[in-house]
Specification:
Helix content is 27%, strand content 32%. By secondary structure, the chain is an alpha+beta fold.
C-alpha cells in the first residue's frame, strides 16, 4: 500500500522543511491539505499566525513515501 507524508514547506530557503505526519492514505493526506489552517495565506488560528510572524510564508503539502 502506498502511503503519504505531510510536509511543511517554507518560502525562506534558510528554514528546513518539516515532516508533520507519516503513514497516511491519499484521502487522509488530501483532507489534511484542504484544511485552511495548513497555509500561512489562509490560517486563522493563533499557532499558524505566530508561525507566519516568526517564519514568513509556509504551507503544508503531501508527498508519496518511499
Amino acid at each position: 500500500m502506498t502511503t503519504y507524508k505531510i510536509v511543511r514547506f517554507y518560502r525562506d530557503p534558510d528554514i528546513s522543511n518539516k515532516i508533520i505526519q507519516r503513514g497516511l492514505t491519499i484521502e487522509e493526506a488530501q483532507a489534511h491539505c484542504n484544511d485552511p489552517e495548513t497555509s500561512s495565506q489562509t490560517c486563522k488560528n493563533k499557532a499558524g499566525k505566530a508561525r507566519t510572524k516568526r517564519c514568513g510564508d509556509w504551507f503544508e503539502g503531501f508527498m508519496k513515501e518511499k
